[in-house]
Amino acid sequence: MSIQMQLSWQHEFHGPNPFTTEPVVVAVLDLESARTPLTWAAAAEFTRRFTAWVDGTTSESNGQADACDSVAILQAVIQWSLGVLNDVRGDLQAGGVRRDLSGRLCCWLGFHEPQLSRAVFERGLRTLTAVQNGSLDMQALNARLADLEQACRRHHPDYQARILRVAARAHNIPVLPFVPGSRFWQFGWGKHSRVFFESFSNDDAALGSRWQSDKPLSKQIFQSLGLPTPRFERVNDTAQLHEAAQRIGYPCVVKPVSCGGGKGVTAAITDQAGLEAAYSHARRFAPTGPLMIESHQPGDDYRLVLVSGQLVAAIRRRPACVTGDGHSTVTELVDELNRTRSANLVKSRYLRPIMKDHYLVAHLAAQGMTLDTCLPAGQRLSLRSNANLSTGGSCDDYTDQVHPQLKAMAEQVAQTFGIATAGLDYITTDISAPPAMGVGAFIEINTTPGLDACVAAGWSESRIGHMVLGDIPQRIALTLHVVTEDRLGAEREQLKHTPLPAGEALACGDLLRVGEALFACEPAEPWPAVRAALRNKSVTSLVVMCTAREIMQQGLPVDKVDRVEYLGVTLTPEWMQVLSAATPTA
After folding, report:
1. Contact call for residues 97 and 75 (beta carbons, < 8 A)
2. What is the pLDDT of residue 584?
3. Which residues contact 121 (CB under 8 A, 6 or more apart)?
4. How does DSSP classify residue 389?
5. Cβ(469)–Cβ(462) under 8 Å?
6. Which of 147, 233, 253, 371 could connect to 244 by a Cys-Cys bridge, CB 3.0–4.6 Å?
7. 3-class state of residue 528 by DSSP
């Protein structure tokens, strides 16, 4: 049995449109002409097989889900598609099905990258069809999903940017890619904007960023400021390593000088064999250049998060561990712990699955254990020597217990480095005690402190994200003039010869005037002149000249405008409704 259906991609909207306020791709689908229509039974089986992504309800069907079986059946495919896309750092919400005025089935799906969302939706349709035909090959499907997952990793926001985007949505802050296809995201418009790479922004000092990227250099700066920090040395080979270990003593730590996320780090090294194993481990991540050896600081690992020079969080990071029950092996205990964690870090609140790799095997061997060891009831077993989330660690919030002297010291360090969002690693046996008591030491500083650690410790994404975004990201005044094609051409010519006051901008086609400056914008993205104006930090207000055709082809250039003027043109009622919704003060 085969099912034939006609699918036609009709629109790619990059702004508010008749379907939603978010960027979407829109398809028209003809199921009625299919020789064998899709059935409720197939949709129910499809839902049963993919319960992680499809819950059997409609999220955005405009109340029409009960009007026709086809609408509700396709809504399951939309849910499946959003589930696949959001499984890897996506934060898409828009998706739905409805019939247009001519009775055609219109399906829309949000995107970070439009072609990727089209591919996922088409894969969902094929999967539903295969379920109905009884020809679903899960092995082949998983291979296709793995390819789509890799594409999502290339095109979707990283997890830190995702946290900021969630906060921006909650606080009505506009977001746009600062460089299309890159990991640089802009929050706010024009003068009231900030650009972020993860949580590192264009407000961070260049020198501070350079200092923190070199761990030994940052520790030298700690020393020059009078901060307690473990003794350390740079080493280039095993001979220097052994000599340095004699001077520093055991236990010690070996790590690359510039890797993050706990990569290549081995702590609590107690003998020469462990030292050589740690050197080999570090070299896997830093094959050339110096490594660093430092004395081991006893205590718990804390990430101190500072925003604009103020301490906002102190997160204790604990190494991955399991506790014995008297009958389970280490492998079984790890498997049980991993059931609460998944590759979808958003669902597991950024707690990573613990990998049963050779690092784990070596760490267990150093404790006289193997993966097949049966732990006595109540015995706690460490699975890693470092406490990073990336290696399976967990987090707790200790912000309220930080000693005032430690708080002041951390804030002064962040201000001296000039890092707007900083993460200071501090190891201590008692975070409520002052550093002067000798109970703790500063390990390193980071420009990307890992906002996910706060979420793993119980914070909401919106809370920590909004703290990092701060008060700068806002909107600027924006007016939209909808004109005729002839009027647009005339305005474009006049724009070439008419300077504007400083801070004012006018976008018309591919031309942009900002004060005295005139820009010809490459059409590498939708609304190139509008987006160029919004990225320009000198712009305080913007007027956009466009035609009804441009709006109906691409969607509105922005999600909200202050005023709309119609100069000799009329739009269809559905587009007038879109413009009215985007002008809340009108």
Report:
1. yes
2. 81
3. 25, 27, 77, 78, 81, 107, 109
4. G
5. no
6. 233
7. helix
The full 3-state SS of 246-277, as one line of letters, equals HHHCCCEEEEECCCCCCCCCEEEECCHHHHHH
Q: Is the pLDDT of residue 492 over 50?
A: yes
Say which residue the tokens 């003060």 belong to: 585
Residue 583, SS3?
Answer: coil
Determine contact, residues 562/554, Cβ cutoff 8 Å: no
Question: Tens digit of pLDDT for each residue in 281-328?
Answer: 999 999 999 999 999 999 999 999 999 999 999 999 998 999 999 999
- Can you tell me whether residue 529 is helix, strand or coil? helix
What's at 482, amino acid-wise? Answer: V
- The Cα 535–Cα 537 span in angstroms is 6
CA–chain centroid gap for 254, Å, is 30
Q: pLDDT for 453-473, tens place per residue?
A: 999 999 999 999 999 999 999
By the 10 Å C-beta count (0-12 exposed, 13-18 middle, 19+ buried), 333 is classed as buried
Tokens standing for residue 487: 């009027």
**Which residues, in sequence order, are bridge partners of residue 9?**
27
Question: Any idea of the CA torsion for 465, 468, 472, 475, to the nearest 10 degrees?
Answer: -20
Residues 366 and 554: their CA atoms lie apart, in Å, by 61
Please state the separation of Cα 104 from the chain's center in Å.
36
CB 87 within 8 A of CB 152: yes
How many angstroms separate the CA atoms of 370 and 391, rounded?
A: 18
Would you say 304 and 424 are in contact if contact means Cβ atoms under 8 Å apart? yes
**Amino acid letter for position 171:** H
CA distance 560 to 130: 42
Q: Which two tokens stand for residue 515?
A: 């004060």
* Total number of residues shown for the chain: 586
Buried b (16+ CB within 10 A) or exposed e, 18-43: bbbbbbbbbbbbebeebeeebeeebb
Helical H segments across 295-446, by residue range: 330-338, 358-366, 404-417
- What's the pLDDT at 59? 38
| Mean pLDDT score across all residues of the chain | 91
pLDDT digits (tens, 9 = 90+) for 74-122: 999 999 999 999 998 889 999 999 998 888 899 999 999 999 999 999 9
Q: Where are the alpha helices (DSSP H) in 89-214?
A: 114-133, 138-155, 159-170, 206-212
145/344 Cα distance (integer angstroms): 14
Given this model, what pLDDT does residue 388 score?
Answer: 82
Partners of 512 in the β-ladder: 507, 519
pLDDT tens figures, 413-445: 999 999 999 999 999 999 999 998 889 999 999
Q: Is the pLDDT of residue 57 over 80?
A: no
8 A C-beta contact, residue 190 and residue 538? yes
Q: Which residues of 378-395 are buried (b: 16+ CB within 10 A; e: fewer)?
A: eeebbbbbbbbbebbbbb
Is 163 a residue whose pLDDT tops 50?
yes
**pTM for the full model?**
0.88
- Contact residues for 575 (Cβ-Cβ < 8 A; gap 6+): 18, 548, 551, 552
Checking if the pLDDT of 235 tops 80, the result is yes
How many Å apart are CA 443 and CA 215, to the nearest integer? Answer: 9
**Which pair of tokens denotes residue 440?**
């703790």
CB-CB contact of 190 with 196 (8 Å): no
